[in-house]
Amino acid sequence: MEQKTTFAIFKNEKLKLFHIWNTKQENPEVNVNVVNAFSKASYALSGKDAGQCAATTSFLRVISSTKKEDWDVEYVELGVVDKNIVRTEYEQWIQVLTELGYICITRDPKVRIQSGKYAGRKWKATIIQNLSTQKVIKHVENMMKDCFVKDDIIKSDASSIGFGAVYGKLSNDVKNISELWSYVFNQYSEYADKDVA
């Protein structure tokens, strides 16, 4: 039996932000909701290797620097449709919400469809010291943007954090993407001392 596709459209009216979460879960209201998203965001800050997927997701990083009560979710059931219809619907929703004055959190707004390409492969953590310094700096810049840090501070601080994570003292404490995200969040987010989940 084919599964129905549903868009869970997360909107923050106060900041005029949105994110479209594509899911094929039977009851998306149960697992794809604000509480669940904040739980995933909290796990991204755990520093664990397995937290890296969440730590590289801009939506989960952004909500960490917002209030839970400022988010609402609208569920749009597309039904059993092929990936071309999913892509078209996604693009139309992006356009509609953008025209309404919302900003898409996703830096590369395209629908993510499970391909099965990685099925059966052993998962590996990304080790910071195995990345190029430029790649780490880019991660830091994006993380700082997701904490709503001003551009002039990002320009002045991102390089030193990136170099420090690869070569300096910070490299002792920051081994993976989740630890890097935790470091940046705790240094720059006004929500650092609050419970994310």
Beta-strand segment tally: 4
Placed side by side, the strands forming the largest sheet appear as 3-1-2-4
Multimeric organization:
single chain
**Number of discrete helical segments:** 8
Average of per-residue pLDDT values? 90
Order of helices and strands: EEHHHHEHEHHH
Provide the low-confidence segments as ranges: none
Strand % is 5-15%
Rg from alpha-carbon coordinates? 18 Å
For the terminal residues, how far apart are their CA atoms?
Answer: 35 Å
Main sheet characteristics: 4 strands, mixed
Structural class of the helix and strand makeup?
Answer: alpha+beta
Number of domains: 2
Classify the helix fraction into a percent range: 40-55%
- Globally, the shape reads globular
Describe the structure.
43% of the residues lie in helices and 13% in strands. A four-stranded mixed beta sheet has the order 3-1-2-4, covered by helices on one side. The protein has two domains: 5-104; 128-188. β1 and β2 (17-23) form a beta hairpin. It has 197 residues and is α+β, with helices and mostly antiparallel strands.
